Amino acid sequence: MLKPITTLLFLFIVFSTQRNFSQEVKFGKVSKTELEEKFYPLDSSTNAAILYKKRRTYFNYVQDKGWELTTVVHERIKIYNKEGYDWATKQIRLYQGNHGEEKVSIKANTFNLVNGKVEKTKLKSNQIFLEEVNKFWKLKKFTMPNLTEGSVIEWTYTFRSEYYTNIDDMVFQYKIPLKYIDTKVTIPEYFVYKYLPSYFYPIKINESSKSRTINLTFKSREGIVTVKTKFQSQKVDLTEKIYSSIEKNIPALKDEPFTNNINNYRSKTSFELTAYKPKNGIPKYFNNNWNDVTKTIYKNSNFGGQLEKKSYFQDELQNLVSTTAPTSEKIAKIFHFVKNKMKWDGFYSKYTSIGVRKAYKENVGNNAEINLILVAMLRGVGLNANPILVSTRDHGIPIFPTTDGFNYVIAGVEIDKSVILLDATEKYSLPNVLPLRTLNWKGRIVRKNGSSNSISLFPKKHSKNVCFLKAEIDDEGILKGGERNSFNNLLALQKRSINNNSSESDLVSKFENDYDNIEIDEFETKNKKDLSKSLFYQYKFEADNQIEVIGDKMYFSPLLFHTEKENPFKLEERKFPVDFGVPWEDKITVSIMLPKSYQIESLPENTAFSLPENLGSFKFMTVVNGNKLQVVCSTKINLSIISPLYYESLKEFYRMLVDKQLEKVVLVKK
Fold first, then answer.
1. What is the largest CA-CA distance in the chain?
2. Which of 12, 471, 476, 505 lies 20 to 30 Å (CA to CA) from residue 512?
3. DSSP readout, 190-207?
4. Domain end position, chosen among 242, 276, 310
5. Is the same domain home to 618 and 471?
6. Which pLDDT score, from 0 to 100, does residue 141 have?
7. Residue 241: how many CB atoms within 10 A of its CB?
8. Do residues 561 and 661 both lie within one domain?
9. By the 8 A CB rule, do 392 and 406 touch?
10. Is 288 a member of any domain?
11. What residue ranges in 474-615 does DSSP mark as E strands?
């Protein structure tokens, strides 16, 4: 408990800080108090904190160009230690399209306390870099100069864009605490946006309106012999809608185990343009529902137009599979062909970059080019194949209809009332076994006739790891034996992707390190490239650290080096779903020959327990036959995602699981 004087000092720091930041913070002026602060009063564990953030977003009408969206940001951050240095690097994305490039101007300073005086270091123009990501996006990047522990950094930038269909989210929560934020978005009545606040951390958004007058200048030409240009001005009155918020002391958004993309649960408000309604013009409506979104995407020449191109693969397709072959054979052969012919360049997009024809010729492309080639070839043999739009896990979950909600495309084959999901960017994938990056709630299948449907991306089959370990313990407590580990579905895909390019010696080192530094010999991989079968790793091992010998007794965990030692769920409560990615099952069978000079004194009791609603189960059983001990342990999770409503049950489930696995087998000398 805090002593009274300490409590008063703590409250004084907090409230005086709030009072200081309730007023306008001037760019370029930092107090000694900010620089002297050694830790953030409300979270002493944080490495950095956002002291102040102000944002203003508004529209201007630019003559001969039209409406321009402007966002002005001023941000000040305190760096407490070296682990907080990452927050001194800033990246600003700039789009470049048919209407030109987005622009940004930047000013920034680093402040340090040197011999009791505030020292300011300005960011120079040659310290700001422009990186070209692809033909659509650039990055303006900089890292603050003269950075030390205790620095205060700040920047202000003005961002201008003619692409006003999407306003950047109003973000209120970051991975470090935010002390004070003042944000405002002002929208002319011509633009109809819907906005969607997030609810994981409550933020109050105030709505108001104000009147504004803009000047429009019209240019006309008069005369027959002598032509003169005449300019006329017209004042237009309009109403603007304002969304604003001032918040203080917002806690850090801390990552938790099994959260998918933590940014999905960030406190923010999103905007989506639904209509443009000029006073004396024809209204223009934008994507108001998912069918509108998918039709817009399909009509794009870099999407639906690419599916109409077929001549580039016809010769190879004819030699690959007959149009009269069974459906399963058509899918398998074409899928295998595209996976092996095409190399993914690592770029995510729902649109092609160089086009399917060129990508096919060069054997390399982005995910859209590869999977649209796959769709076209499947259609070429008479299958009902269509692209499926996906938002990858790091892109977020598209909550309301928007073309920006999707950033990836896979292939789907509709058979009866089911859809077979395919992603040819991943050479170790199988039908309905997608890479983890695409397993993000739901995708949307897009058909040639303009219809679309939501498609669940969650796997229906469990990914299984089955381990069989056979060993013996000698009189000195040395453990020797062999193990065989098998993996299927997503687990096999992931293991192959990570391990197939590693040397055997590297894999042995990795397994030894993962398994309590046991010594491994005669290591072997089976079905490394045969995707139709489970992946196997098998080896012999020896360990002198698994059996604890004290006096005339031996102690060891029944699952040996496969023991789960720690509960991953530590929070008192959790607001986010627990995302395992896939349903999974882990089964371990351990068979141990005990030393003949010892006998069993005690064993962990057999047990079984489960999660509510059949979400998961745990079974533990021991069987003794002479001097042979057999242990069977099975853990099963039946849903990819578990609601936070069941977090307390899941946390208790894992507590009991860990406690059981940590119980010891006790042997005593005869």
1. 123
2. 476
3. TEEEEEEE--SS--PPEE
4. 276
5. yes
6. 96
7. 17
8. yes
9. no
10. no
11. 479-487, 519-526, 535-543, 548-550, 553-556, 578-579, 584-593, 598-602, 607-610
66 — alpha (psi -120 to 50), left (phi > 0) or beta? left
- Regarding whether 306 and 244 lie in a shared domain, the answer is no
User: Mind giving me the DSSP string for 149-172?
Assistant: TT-EEEEEEEEEES-TTSPPPEE-
Confidence (pTM): 0.84
* Best CA proximity match to 188, nearest among 218, 164, 161, 157: 164
Q: What is the CATH number of the domain that holds 405?
A: 3.10.620.30
What Å distances lie between residue 97 and 40, 350, 628, CA to CA? 42, 16, 71
Q: Provide the token pair at 642.
A: 């578990």
In a domain, 283, yes or no: no
pLDDT in tens, 177-194: 999 999 999 999 999 998
Cα separation, 393 vs 439, whole angstroms:
7
Q: How far apart are CA 259 and CA 256, in angstroms?
A: 6
Pair 487, 624 in one domain: yes
- Looking at the structure, do residues 417 and 515 belong to the same domain, yes or no? no
Measured N-to-C along each axis, helices 327-341 and 367-380 cross at an angle, to the nearest 10 degrees, of 150
pLDDT tens track for 625-655: 999 999 999 999 999 999 999 999 999 999 9
Calculate mean pLDDT across residues 61-89: 93
| Radius of gyration in angstroms for the set of CA atoms belonging to the chain, rounded to a whole number | 31
Give per-residue pLDDT as tens, 455-468. Answer: 999 998 999 999 99
pLDDT single digits (tens) 118-156: 999 999 999 999 998 877 889 999 999 999 999 999 999
Q: What DSSP element (H or E) covers 564?
A: none
476, 417: one domain: no
| Number of neighbouring beta carbons within 10 Å of residue 54 | 19
Q: Residue 417 carries which side chain, given as an amino acid letter?
A: K
Statement: residue 445 has pLDDT above 90? yes
Residue 292 domain-assigned? no
Note whether 29 and 66 are same-domain residues: yes
Please identify which residue in the block is written with the tokens 């192959």. Answer: 496
* Exposed / middle / buried, residue 207 (Cβ in 10 Å: 0-12, 13-18, 19+): exposed
How many structural domains compose the chain?
3
Structure tokens at 305: 């137009």
Whole-number pLDDT of residue 633: 98
Q: 336: domain range? A: 301-456
User: Which residues face 197 on adjacent strands?
Assistant: 269
Best CA proximity match to 337, nearest among 422, 436, 415, 421: 422
